[in-house]
Amino acid sequence: MLRLRRFAPALLAGLATASLASSAQAIQPNEELGSRPTIEHHGGGDANVRGKLLWDRVPSRRASAYATFLAEVGPGWRASFDDRTGVPSRLYGPGLNVPGSVASGAIAESYAREFLARHLRLLAPGNNASDFELVSNDLDAGMRTLGFVQKSGSLRVLGGQVSFRFKNDRLFMIGSEALPSVPVLSQPSSIDIDRAKKEAMRWVGEDFGLNTAGAAGDAVVLPHRDASGALTYTVAIPFEVTPSLVTAKFRVYVDATTYEPIVREQLFKFASANVALRVPERAPTYGQRFDAAALLTAVTVGGVTQKTDEAGAITWSGTDPTAIELSLNGDRARVWNDAGDEALLSVSLADATPYVWDQSSDGLVDAQLTSFVHAGRVREYARTFAPTLSFLNQQVKATVNIDDICNAFSDGTSINFYLEGNGCANTGRIADVVYHEYGHSIHAHAVIEGVGEFEGALSEGQADYLAATITGDPATARGFFMTEEELRHIDPPQENVWPDDVVGEVHYDGLIIGQALWDLRKNLIASLGEVEGVQRANELYYQGIRRAVDIPSMYPEILAADDDDGDISNGTPNVCEINEAFARHGLRPTTGTATSLGVMAPSQDGYEVSVELVGLFPQCEGEAIVGGTLSWRDRDLPASTGDVALDLSGNILTGTIPAQPDRHVIKYAVDVELEGPTVHFPDNAADPEYEFFIGEVTPLYCTDFEADPLAEGWKHGLEEGTPDEGADDWTWGEPNGNSQNGDPPAAFSGDNVFGNDLALEDNYNGLYQPEKTTFARSPVIELKGHKNVHLQYRRWLNVEDAHFDRATIHVGDNVVWQNLDSNQGDSSNTHHRDREWRFQDVDLSDAIGADDSVQVTFKIASDPGLEFGGWTIDDFCVVALDDAEPCVGDACGEGGAGGAGGGGAVGGEGGGDSVNPEPDDGCGCAVPGRESNMRGLGALAVAGLAALLRRRRAGAKPR
Fold it and tell me: What is the pLDDT of residue 137?
């Protein structure tokens, strides 16, 4: 579906880390910036270099390199691959023994460099080991972490990095955000900096008017996508441009040769949302006020400047009472007032008489006092879980009463707050907002260079968590709307789940990780007690944000932080609590593989089926595999059914369906019993049984879509709906499935498939469009007198419950198959979600045309809301199960789509014999007396397993 992206889910390969001091994050979206993405391409295309993560699915172009990796490291490792670059974002497993690597940074560096050189094809394909420069060698909490940044010549490749983690003298996790095949580039010998700056200002000025620009930054190699969508690299000069009339700041990258702007990044990432100071505990309209000591704060006594002590006490000699002046400038925090002079307390103090500075009736002054107190509080709280973070030794700089409303922001170091107005409180008067903004500053300074990244949605969620863990209340920013109502809640009745609830807005998307962290906190309190549980949760959250590059990578990074022996595969001290919390939110990548049978030769030995589960930890309640059952039935003989107990070996279960009649379709399913739940294969409530065909067939027309189907006579089009760009989204090529569109990451055979919106171009998201009916139609297939004719093919279909959206297969005017309608009215939500390539046999015999032919049509008909990935088809074959009857009439003769030498061939090479073809690895049909290569392992993400390990969500379809 053609759709401009509203938000870049991951910053362009690390743009935010290039200049942390000037990036900014805030409490709610900025209306002036509207729905603009965080990263914008000057050409209007998709500015994202990176894609979605695919767990345990190895892209075909990395299969050989990954096999080499596994040959060295051994079994038990897991991997998540970026579906665009094909680079493994995270690899972790039992670990490799590297003596001395934790104590000695030099040993760790030497081993990491050698390992990188050996596995360059996997970790940084198309590059040289010398392209990576060590920038971090960090020892913290018993883990040594090394970060290497990617270079092209002397220039840094923006966002390119490879990282290694050692614990217990074992290399147990590797991360890579390396950019593939970066050419050697150099900075032009002469650059007109003034011209480049003007072009940067011009682009920002086109959208936001007058602006100013700072000095040019260091030249970098910028990865981006050209007009065709291909990944390309350009030497670029960055400028920070600030509009005069809009609260925003951009980093603009300008081509160092052509001076054309390439991309720009929003740096203000806005969200919608003794002497003692009497300030709100939470907000003026929620909770009580309390008296906070003015700790270590500048005070003038008798013309001499000193500081209050840690109890807020002032000492002097001489006159009693004496005049003092106290400003909001302390060791922990300093406050500036954007609306005028800074608050200054001028009073006379008497010996042993406390004084309370209360400005609750003056919002402008109260904002200064409140921000001062809570900025100091959050800094000191953070020191309890991040004692080595040097940023926490710095004074917190806060500016309040900025002439704007309903917001606040961090620029990566300072924190900034807006005035009251339009139903929103002065954000400098809300403790949670102060904590949240400082959370962004912590994140910006905590990221280990060359290892983690400052990603917008992750930062929003972790900042919400920080505010909540300080207050102990998951309802954050109460009082924002001048009532007790919260701005966001990270422990709601209905959990937010990845990727189902990803909408492309950083604050909403961040709720997923915020809620997961809060659930982890609750779990650890339950297992360790209040004090120790909160402390451990905070430590894990902090170590996670140091190394994570986005929300999904928080799970492996928190496991790594919790690990105690350099081997995640055997669990961690709190693995069960971590798994339970992250599984609730779709962030625990449990996967499995199940045998996928297709067209099978008759066998007296039966048909073996196996299932392997990956990512379980038997030490956790309910996760040990107890056993399993293989259930089968004959589609053609309802009384013929059976159950087979599966044999268990480790995490693999195996069973055999007994011998079955020739030319029958057998349906089967597997139930794996854990100590707690039961996991069902296939994981598709709308089609909960696999099927396979037994016997010999006569291929009439077959194609594996390796050649363009349009050249073979296929057609596609828009049948109903507005003909918007991309409305007819049937495309041919390599699939680009990810966790959000649910499409396959690779073809079933070969490289190419045919389907709805394969996301081959920028701005296509892999989803069919709303209120459209589209079709793909095969050529006319002559049957040569055959009357028992079936379609046998591989499908990967994702479509809403048929009460709303219909996926159908037609022959002429006959509907021969459609997806399930659960008949629950507008509460129908049994969506058809294939999570693997499925073999399907469809009987076409009753739909044969009078001209002794069939023509197969696939359709999607959608309603106005909730779209999925639609059809993806491969290895399409129309076959005959009977001997041909004598042919009479004009239909007889040579040629036609299914004749020898016509249409598509069984082998996909454009020729072939339709009666006795050679055995083939890619066709959807089998040859007489031979077992098709359709039998194999179809990998799937076991969402059913993940869902059973979290709370299932149910309810009506969102309208």
Answer: 96
Q: How many CA atoms within 13 Å lie on the side-chain side of 362?
A: 10
- Report, at the CATH architecture level, how domain 53-176 is classified: 2-Layer Sandwich (3.30)
Domains of the chain by residue range = 28-48+186-265, 53-176, 275-583, 596-694, 698-925
708 closest CA partner among 776, 807, 619, 638: 776
Question: Which residues face 108 on adjacent strands?
Answer: none
Is-contact 520 582, C-beta < 8 A? yes
Indicate the Cα dihedral angle 890, 891, 897, 898, nearest 10°.
-140
Q: Which of 386, 442, 432, 390 has the alpha carbon at shortest distance from 412?
A: 442
**In whole angstroms, how far apart are CA 41 and each of 103, 157, 818?**
45, 18, 41
DSSP three-state, residue 953: coil
pLDDT, position 268: 67
Amino acid occupying residue 717: G
Distances (CA, A) of 361 to 331, 358, 429, 732: 27, 8, 12, 67
Of 420, 415, 414, 375, whose CA–CA distance to 401 is shortest? 420
Spell out, as residue ranges, where the chain has pLDDT lower than 50.
1-23, 269-273, 888-944, 946-948, 950-959
CA atoms within 13 A on the CB side of 258: 6
CATH of domain 28-48+186-265: 3.10.450
Beta bridge partners of 716: 776
Burial of 751 (0-12, 13-18, 19+ CB in 10 A): middle
Q: How many CB atoms lie within 10 A of CB 166?
A: 29
CA atoms of 335 and 375, how far apart (whole Å)? 9
Query: In 3-state terms, what secondary structure has residue 941?
Result: coil
Give the global pTM. Answer: 0.71
Q: How far apart are CA 740 and CA 231, in angstroms?
A: 22
Tell me the CATH number for domain 698-925.
Answer: 2.60.120.200
Is domain 596-694 given the CATH code 3.30.70.20 in the classification? no
Rg (CA), the chain: 31
H or E element in which residue 399 lies: strand 396-405
Q: Output the pLDDT for position 909.
A: 30
CB 275 within 8 A of CB 345: yes
Q: Are 668 and 693 in contact (CB under 8 A)?
A: no
- Which among 246, 283, 268, 288 is positioned nearest to 487, based on CA atoms? 283
Cβ neighbors of 636 (< 8 A, separation 6 or more) are 661, 664, 665
Kindly report, residue by residue over 492-535, the tens digit of the pLDDT. 999 999 887 887 789 999 999 999 999 999 999 999 999 899 99
Give the separation between CA 96 and CA 71, rounded to whole angstroms. 12
C-alpha span between 151 and 182 (Å, rounded): 9
Q: pLDDT at position 217, please?
A: 92
Nearest to 231 by CA among 94, 434, 47: 47
Rounded-to-integer distance, Cα 249 and Cα 200, Å: 12
Q: Is 439 helix (H, G, I), strand (E, B) or coil?
A: helix
Level-2 CATH architecture, domain 275-583: Orthogonal Bundle (1.10)
User: What is the rounded CA–CA span in Å between residue 611 and residue 595?
Assistant: 7
CB 776 within 8 A of CB 754: yes
Pairing of strands 690-694, 599-600: parallel
87-119 burial string, b = 16+ CB within 10 Å, else e? bbbbbbbbbbebeebbebbebbbebbbebbeeb
Q: Tens of pLDDT along 536-586? A: 999 999 999 999 999 999 999 999 999 999 999 999 999 999 999 999 998
Nearest in space to 543 (alpha carbons), one of 149, 141, 159: 141
Question: Which pLDDT score, from 0 to 100, does residue 76 have?
Answer: 85
